[in-house]
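hi got a favour to ask and not much time before my train. below you get a single protein, a line of residues and a line of whole numbers that encode the local backbone shape. could you go over both lines and see whether the tokens make sense for that sequence. a few lines back from you is plenty, here it is:
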Amino acid sequence: MFLKDPCGVCCILITYVSVFYADYVIVKWVVLQSMVNSLWGSFNVVMFNTVILFLCMAHFRAVFTDPGTLPLFPSKLDFSDLHSSESGCDYVDWTVCTRCEIYRPPRAHHCRICRRCIRRMDHHCPWINNCVGERNQKYFLQFLIYVGILSVYAIVLVSTSWLSECKDCSQEITIKQARIMHSVILLLISTLFGMFVSAILVDQIQAIVTDETAVEQVQNQGPYRPHKPKMTLLSDVFGREHPLFWLMPCSSTKRKLDTPLINHHV
């Protein structure tokens, strides 16, 4: 379900305006100005737009994939038996969400923006207008990676077009001024976005390999499974396929959930 959060909607609009502006500058003011008679021009246009395609696919799936929302029950629940002797030891680490009025498995937390409890919730991200949770963290990471690649690619293309001699470039003052203006703006946007997503990506990878979400770090809970191999932890997020396919946004992350829910008849 798409959230009608003003901050999230604005962040999504800013994301796509920035991405398509970068495409416009690279094609019109870099390639068509300095590489128009070179095969490198066509190659860079195809590669740059391929990265944009993967970025948009990953972002779309991060936005519209259910992050792991726990279902609500139609009737009021009696929570008194959650830790009773009749419920057994299987649910000893479960908690109760008083807002959703549901049983909550370990690592699930309530999001005040989504107003629901999310499995293995890391944080709510306005850039995808969704929570980063068990089911969509892979797509969120792919989105960060492709934004970083696109930022570096744009900086390299713009820098190369200005550092190398350009015999095919127009010498008209208005065109040169427009090219300089768009190049400077794109460099600033690419640098800011590149640094921003790099910091988030490092934090996300660290959270995965230490098996501690952002919420758990704030609560000082420590690693959830301290002795689990790092590759196993990464495959829990990216899927069981070969690591070469981890960056493909068209692959699915569906798998059997770790913990079955307590139903409302408990």
About this structure: The chain has six helices and six strands. Residues 213 and 255 are 20 Å apart (CA to CA).
